[in-house]
């Protein structure tokens, strides 16, 4: 990872009626910062009349031995490049990512007309698929063979050290975006001194074992627990040590077969 370029993801939440309007609103920002649009998502089910547009570009910063410092510096440098009118932001960092949220519509309107907020993320690390961790499968020696293809429902819980629900949601979305393009927050609930954000990551045609493998690989973190199996459902966990005063404290991925979508492949 040391010496590699850091990736910037800039996500604008804008008032728009459709994909075309959302992309058009971000055209000036795209010309100013460079990069390319990697996704545009209708988020009107959560905020009526809004779309989120994400731009990806390579940062001028490179990963160093102090990855956290490089990530935070990449975010701050990018925000300064937006203009002198933007104050130096407070940056949250939990390697392999750091992020900040700009939430001043009046200030943002000059960059993206109709923008409600801007999420700026920096990410470190290469293709996580090259270092896929092994996730052990459940013991099925005394069970009937598993169908060849199983549609699986994947969910994510992100525990965040913060007292603001909006801050917890944005940090959770940053993590979920590494696994699924359109994860949907289902609830936010207190968990001790943390806030737990529950996200439905959608369905997979893979078995729970493979779905967890792919999700963990996409997140690119080390230190995951063994899979805890309850019937055919598996859960794998990660936690920060020590628990940070602010930022992501723990993750839990759960893969559950959806009985309505279980089928075998014809011979």
Protein described:
With 267 residues, this protein is α+β, with helices and mostly antiparallel strands. The protein folds into two domains: 5-123, 50s Ribosomal Protein L5, Chain: A; 146-263, 50s Ribosomal Protein L5, Chain: A (2-Layer Sandwich). It is 22% helix and 40% strand. It has helices at 19-25, 27-33, 67-82, 105-108, 165-176, 208-219; strands at 5-15, 36-42, 50-62, 92-94, 97-102, 115-123, 149-161, 184-191, 194-204, 228-230, 233-239, 247-263. The strands form two sheets. Strands 2-3-1-6-5-4 form a six-stranded antiparallel β-sheet, sandwiched between helices. Strands 8-9-7-12-11-10 form a six-stranded antiparallel β-sheet, covered by helices on one side. The longest helix is centred in the N-terminal third of the chain and has 16 residues, at 67-82. The chain is globular. Mean pLDDT is 81; it is low at 126-135, 142-148 and 260-267.
């Amino acid at each position: 990872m040391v010496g590699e370029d850091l990736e910037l993801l800039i996500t604008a939440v804008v008032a728009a009626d459709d994909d075309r309007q959302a992309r058009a609103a971000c055209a000036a920002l795209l010309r100013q910062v460079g990069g390319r649009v990697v996704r545009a998502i209708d988020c009107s089910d959560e905020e009526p009349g809004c779309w989120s547009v994400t731009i990806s570009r390579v940062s001028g910063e490179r990963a160093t031995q102090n990855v956290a410092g490089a990530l935070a510096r990449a975010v701050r440098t990018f925000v300064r490049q937006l203009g002198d009118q933007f104050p130096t932001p407070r940056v949250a960092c939990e390697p392999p990512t750091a992020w900040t949220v700009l939430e001043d519509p009046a200030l943002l309107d000059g960059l993206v007309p109709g923008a409600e907020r801007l999420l700026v993320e920096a990410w470190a690390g290469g293709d996580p698929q090259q270092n896929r961790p092994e996730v052990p499968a459940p013991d099925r020696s005394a069970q009937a063979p598993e169908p060849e293809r199983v549609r699986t429902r994947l969910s994510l819980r992100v525990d965040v050290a913060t007292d603001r629900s909006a801050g917890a949601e944005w940090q959770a979305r940053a993590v979920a975006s590494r696994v699924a393009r359109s994860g949907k927050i289902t609830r936010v609930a207190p968990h001790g001194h943390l806030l737990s954000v529950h996200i439905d990551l959608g369905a997979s045609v893979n078995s729970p074992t493979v779905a967890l493998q792919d999700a963990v690989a996409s997140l690119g973190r080390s230190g995951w627990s063994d899979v805890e199996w309850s019937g055919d459902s598996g859960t794998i966990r990660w936690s920060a040590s020590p628990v940070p005063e602010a930022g992501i404290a723990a993750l839990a991925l759960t893969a559950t077969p959806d009985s309505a979508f279980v089928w075998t492949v014809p011979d």
